[in-house]
Structures are given as structure tokens and as C-alpha cells.
Amino acid sequence: MSGLGAKRFLLAAIAVSIVISAFSHRFNSYYLGVALDVGIAVILAVSLNLINGHTGQFSLGHAGFMASGAYVSALCTIHVLPLVDPRLQPVVFCASLLVGGLAAALAGLGVGIPSLRLRGDYLAIVTLGFGEIIRVVLQNMEIVGGASGLKGIAKLSTLAWVWAFAAVTIYTVAALVNSTYGRGFIAVHDDEVASSAMGINPTRYKVVAFVVGAFFAGIAGGLYAHHKQFLSPTGFDFMKSIDIVVMVILGGMGRTAGVAAAAVLLTVLPEFLRGFAEVRMIIYSLLIIGLMILRPQGLFSFGERRVKAS
Amino acid sequence: MQPDLSQPPQPSSEPLLQVQELKVNYGAINALDGVSLKVAAGQIVSLIGANGAGKTTLLRAISALHKPRSGSIAYAGRSLVGLPPHAIVRNGLCHVPEGRMVFANLTVLENLRMGAYLQTDHSVVEREMDYVFTTFPRLKERLRQSAGTLSGGEQQMLAIGRALMGSPKCLMLDEPSLGIAPLLIKAIFEKIVQINREHGITILLVEQNANLALEAASYAYVLETGRVKLEGPSAQLRHDPEVKAAYLGGR
After folding, report:
1. Is residue A196, in this structure, part of any structural domain at all?
2. Is the Cβ–Cβ distance between B87 and B136 less than 8 Å?
3. Containing structural domain, residue A42
4. B59 touching A (Cβ < 8 Å)
5. Prediction pTM value
6. pLDDT tens, A244-271?
7. Is the Cα torsion angle A232, A234, A237, A243 positive or negative in sign?
8. Does the beta carbon of B235 lie under 8 angstroms from any beta carbon of chain A?
9. How confident is the model over B183-209, as a mean pLDDT?
10. Would A147 be classed as within a structural domain?
């Protein structure tokens, strides 16, 4: 998307989420919950797409970044909210989300730098290990509730917050990748050797992708914490990371709009299948396999960055 | 700094690029076993040899894509050993890697812009872009097309054009003829010579097609299993019975 159109999209999306959010008390709380899940999934998938899709790295640690943000922002609101005027609640919430995002970004920097010598499956294993370390550490930290989980988180995530942050994520990733600087991500993805030959420092781009991607995963984690009001380390195991990776692959690697659409689809789909009870996840898995066979290039891989035939 | 075109190139006095006793290992295998070479400013020097002789390894070592075990690499009087690959480009030494490594997901225009990644002066970018289009008019026709959809020859033109965007003083071309239609090979080699003459860009050319390489270059090295087997002015090597038999397909 081009500069002006993208900014309009961002403002429109934020406005729409605030307006809809104003009526949210009229919605069935189940649908409202799914709508929040969808928004959080969009943030996670679009931010992972910067790392896995545009920059061509393979991270399996997104749940770890999400967990860092979730726990840090939950701790912030738990400890700060009782001390301040209730009217300041939204400010504290927003600040705690950003602090969670920064904590995750720091974790992204921590994983990014040592793993840059690795590529492909090796990098995947390192990031997978990192995600598990975060989970195990959380499980054994009494201050965050350990294995029994972190309770008493305020219900602060609304449609407006979630969808506004989803819009900001889409806008930031799209604007970043479409900038002259951001073409470097795609260049590093296409060919590292040729990128270095242009004077691009592939290492720096990879670290930036990890840091920015982790930051938004942390934001998503914070929104998730204040949506579910309960955090358990098992919710951030590596299957969570796989779920996000599937969204990116299904949406088409490096295609922001497609990945966002896939995040919506894959969050809503299991809900539609609830009627099938115990065979639900089997149907879900078969649908994903079927989609991968029929559209290996990604379900939504048309639109931006289309490759012309001639 | 623009090279002075009024002066003929002055070989041997102070080479632009000098490699001495370079050794590179792949595990236990000696890919380069003490290679020395000199490239004088303004010249085209070519490196010929069979598959596995170490030609590509030598270019990659100069670009810091391989770490040498020992030996020195000096460019414009400065040592390049220990610098990261992207820092070497800053000095005006640009590598066009083997196999036309264009950014397949970017358009031709975006590829060329990436070539000028380090150039902050917009007027220089415009000037280089004009020069690339006059050299390779085909690229101008395909400006908005994804680089991955170009033909092999066009991709090679783009790879060379992209390298020119960085205003290099020295270009290292790795197998520009690889996998390209014979008709285009001739055209591309004419362009390489033209770039050298018009822009005064020094060229180190790695090429399996020894006939073409010796035609374009003024000086050449023959590499065999990681060592320099022969060297000399191209005209002389072309008539060398050994080179003829092994590389030129002559009797």
C-alpha cells in the first residue's frame, strides 16, 4: 500500500474500532471474545511475517515473545493500577502494553544477535529453544504465579484497543517494508550474498526484523493478558508458535494483507467447528492440509508484490 | 573519486587490488593454496580455469564471504582482511556474484535502487541510473517487472547494472556467461568491455569460457586446483599451447 492510502487505512481502522467498541456492550460476549482473539492473532501473524516472510528467517519463538509481553504488562497493571486514579486507567494500560512490547523487543534483541550466524532450520531450533526457556522460566517464577498461572488481571482489552493496535501493526510492517530502507528486508530474504555486495548489512536487518516483530508480539501478549485475565505458561508453548507460523504460511509469506486474512480465518474457523466436538481439531488440520495442497503459495497470495507473467 | 580517463592505465606500479599467498580451506580441503594476483587500475583482468579450480572462492574471499586461513588482500593500499562484506563495498569494490543473484521479489527499479543503497547523493543516483539505462536499454523497458521474471540474460544485465549503481571503482564479475543464451553472452561481454572503457572501472572477471575471457581481458591468470598455474597478457596466453589444449578447445 502506498503512503497516503496506508495512512488513511490506519486512521479509518482505528476510528472504526473505536466506534464499534462503543457499542460492544450490546454484543454477545462470546462473539466479542472471538473478535478480540482475531485482532490479537492478526497482530501476532503480521509481526511474525516481518521475520519469517519478508526477511526470510525462520522463527519458532513468537509465543515466547508474546509471553514476555503478556507477563510484563500484566505485572505492570496489577501493581500500578491500585495506586493511581481510576481515570488514568487507559493511560496506564497503554503504557503497560508498550512496556510489555519493549520487554519482548529486548528479548528479540537477545535472541536475534546470537542466532544471526544461523539460518533456516538451525535458527528455527534456536528460537524454539528460546520460546521454551521463557515458558519454563515463567513456570518456575513464583512472583508470576508459577505453574498455577497469573490471576487477577484487570479486564482492560477492548475492541478499540485490540483493533487499533492491529491496525498500527499492519501499518507499521507495511510502511516499513515498502520504504526504501525496508526494501533491504526483502533483499536480505532474496539473497544475502547479493545484499552484502550492495553494502547492506544483513545482520542488522535481521536484528531489526526480530526486534520489531517481537515488539508487536509483546503488545499482542499484553492485549491477550488483559483479555483473558489469566495467564498460564502452558498457553505459550511451542504449539502456540506453530499456530502463528501456520497463519503466516497460509496467508502467503511476505504478504501482509494475506497473512492478516489468514489470521482471521484460522481464529474463526475452530469456532465454527465447535459443533463437531471431538473431531473438531481433526477437521481443522485436514482443512489446513487441503489448503496447503491447493494453494501452496499461500491462500491469499495475490495483490501486493504480485509477480507478473510476462 | 572519478578515475581519470585521459591517462592510460598504468599497470604494475601500484595495483588497485593485490592478493598475496592467499589460502582458503573448506574443512580439510585446500580450496586456495597460496594464490597471488595483481589487478592494475583500469584494466580488465580475467581468471580462467576449470570447475573447482578456486575461481569463485577467490572472489568470495576478496569479498570477505570466506575467511582466508592466511595471506593478504589489499585494495587501494588498504588491507581488506577482517572487514565484514558490506564494509568492503564502501571502498568501491563490488562483487557481482555467480548465478545472477538478483532480488527476485523486487522490481527491476527497486533492484537498481538497492544497488545505490550506500549512495546518499540523489543526483549521483540519477546519473548512475541514466548510465545503466544507456548501457542496458532492455532494463528500462522492464522497469516495473519483478526481477525473478526476467530472462537469464536480462537478470545478468540487471546484476551488473545494480552493481554499477553503487559507483564502484572495481567490479568483480563471477561467471557472467553462466546459463545465458549464446547470443546474449556476446552482447554482455561487449558491455563489460564498454563499461571498462567508458567508466574506467577496473574489472576482475571470472569466466569458464576462456575464449571470451581472454578476448575481453588484457591480462589473465589460469587457476588450477587452488594455485595459479599460468599468468600473462591475454594475447600471449591465447597462443600458449597448454592453454589452447586445456581451455580453448584448440589443437
Report:
1. yes
2. no
3. 3-238
4. no
5. 0.81
6. 999 998 888 888 888 999 999 989 988 8
7. negative
8. no
9. 91
10. yes
